[in-house]
Specification:
Elements lengths: L1 H8 L10 H4 L5 E3 L11 H11 L3 E3 L2 H32 L9 E2 L8 E2 L1 H18 L2 H30 L4 H23 L7 H30 L4 H7 L6 E10 L8 H9 L2 E14 L10 E5 L7 E9 L7 H23 L13 E3 L11 E5 L26 E5 L8 H16 L1 E11 L6 H17 L14 E9 L1
Parallel strand pairs: 5-6, 5-12, 6-8, 12-13
Antiparallel strand pairs: 1-2, 3-4, 7-8, 7-9, 10-11
Helix pairs in contact: 6-7, 6-8, 8-13, 11-12
């Protein structure tokens, strides 16, 4: 209000380069360390200055005001930064923005996040605009158009909320948008007059982000449609027989996929070109849920793919946004124990499996070994050196590792109460043998290309735009903890 009062009296400035905010600040100000001459409004500020210099002095007040203006700009920018983080997170969840690293800073509040890439991008944009304009008048025009555009768009969206969410009459929404929209439209038209004087910057940035988001969303949708359309049918799997028509080597093949149902096309692409696969195959899908933590006993959803003798399993691992992904050894242990528990409970609860083999099989919630559920299968390691042998019903198998490593006995410990039949015991033995032979992580590395005969615009969007964004976006978080020595990437070209 003090600045407005000053400008109302001194509205004719001598030159255009002078800034109204700093013109209203006195050139010099005398500070006396005495309670009688200190105004209440500047008590804290003058006491700090007095403590620094311990005497009366004459100082230019413009520098302290500059510091206060910088602090005010920092506080005001938090709304822009927080809003940008929230919008980017929602767009990324909807598949409308390339994947970025999202850090949740609070385990209680879901909305408190930090995105390093966006934070650095905002800093670079601010520096570029400041260095490019070198004039607060043009920056003010750009900020004014951005702010009034946000208000106008918010008013239009609020009218939709009144009708669709609050289920009010359309007449109320029309009155709302006419009253507030007419006022904001006047400010918007006034800001458009300054379009060539700096107001073009937010419009240009909006179009750049709009094109990038559209290209990413279009490419993501086409890639997902290709995955869904090229899923391997269960009939093809049944026609191969228990050996799948290929050589089954020892070990566990862990295939990462984004599909929660069906067999991904990467599986058929792999076995068609290399007719050999592991004796146990697990289709793993890792999902993030909107809760801070997922309890260990609710971590995995496990089901079968095809008949029991095929040894094909599907596992969906659920993680909260504050859960820490374990290293590869702990994850392997929890995954194998959860599948072993599923094999045991599948016999006791569902008889001989699922009967008819459909595309969407029934999934069972199975906890990890860290949950320590009573009556569940666990994996135990002993430092004793003994030969592999079979013991009672509570100790299913013991395997002596190679002499080069630390000598430990690894075995499944199952509860004594349930009676495990021969088929279940044989399946558990085969799972344990595969675990001891090793686990291979198979990742899909897809290349999206436009089909032959597509328009030149689609070729530019898919072959260049989407490919550039995909190569520069962040990969899945679980891929960072996978050991490189046991990782196999299968390349596949998607013609969309």
């Amino acid at each position: 209000m003090g600045q407005a009062a000053y400008l109302s009296k001194h509205h004719s400035l001598e030159s255009d380069y002078r800034i109204g905010f700093y013109v209203s600040v006195p050139g010099k100000f005398f500070v006396i360390f005495s309670k009688k001459h200190i105004f209440k409004e500047i008590l804290v500020f003058t006491m700090l200055l007095s403590l620094l210099f311990f005497s009366s002095f004459s100082v230019k007040l413009r520098w302290p005001v500059l510091a206060i203006a910088i602090l005010q700009a920092v506080v005001g920018s938090q709304a822009v930064i927080t809003g940008t983080f929230s919008i980017i997170k929602q767009c990324s969840a909807l598949g409308c923005f390339p994947k970025v690293k999202i850090i949740h800073t609070s385990s209680k509040t879901h909305g408190q996040i930090y995105i390093p890439e966006i934070n650095w991008s905002l800093m670079l944009l601010c520096l570029a605009i400041t260095v490019g304009f070198r004039d607060t008048k043009r920056m003010g025009n750009a900020a004014g158009l951005a702010v009034i555009t946000v208000m106008l768009v918010t008013t239009c969206l609020m009218s939709l909320v009144i009708v669709l969410c609050w289920h009010k009459s359309i007449l109320l929404a029309i009155c709302f948008i006419l009253f507030f929209g007419s006022i904001e439209a006047l400010y918007f038209s006034a800001s458009l007059i300054k379009f060539l004087e700096g107001a073009w910057v937010p419009i240009a940035l909006s179009f750049i982000f709009l094109i990038s988001m559209y290209v990413w969303h279009y490419g993501t949708i086409k890639k997902y449609e290709f995955d869904v359309e090229n899923k391997v049918p269960i009939n093809w799997l049944l026609s191969l027989g228990p050996t799948l028509g290929i050589v089954r080597v020892k070990g566990i093949g862990l295939i990462h996929t984004e599909l929660v149902s069906g067999i991904p096309a990467i599986f058929s692409h792999f076995v068609t070109n290399l007719p050999a696969f592991h004796q146990v195959v697990i289709f793993l899908c890792i999902k993030s849920v909107q809760v801070p933590h997922v309890r260990p006993e609710e971590r995995f959803l496990v089901g079968r793919v095809g008949p029991k003798e095929y040894r094909l399993y599907r596992c969906i691992a659920r993680y909260g946004y504050r859960d820490i992904h374990k290293d590869d050894m702990e994850f392997e242990k929890d995954l194998v124990c959860s599948i072993a528990e599923f094999i045991r409970s599948d016999t006791s609860e569902y008889g001989l499996g699922f009967g008819s083999f459909e595309e969407d099989t029934k999934m069972t919630v199975v906890g990890t070994s860290a949950s320590n559920l009573e009556g569940s299968i666990r994996m135990s390691e002993d430092d004793q050196q003994q030969d592999s042998h079979m013991e009672g019903p509570s100790e299913l198998m013991e395997v002596k590792p190679s002499p080069e490593k630390v000598r430990k006995r690894v075995r499944f410990v199952v509860p004594e109460s349930p009676q495990i039949d021969f088929e279940t015991r044989e399946e558990l033995l085969e799972l344990m043998e595969a675990k001891e032979a090793g686990m291979a992580f198979i990742l899909s590395h897809s290349y999206v290309r436009a089909k032959s005969g597509s328009s030149w615009l689609k070729k530019v969007v898919i072959n260049y735009g989407y490919d550039f964004l995909r190569r520069n976006s962040r990969g899945p978080t679980y891929a960072l903890s996978i050991p490189h020595a046991s990782t196999l990437e299968v390349g596949m070209i998607y013609h969309v």
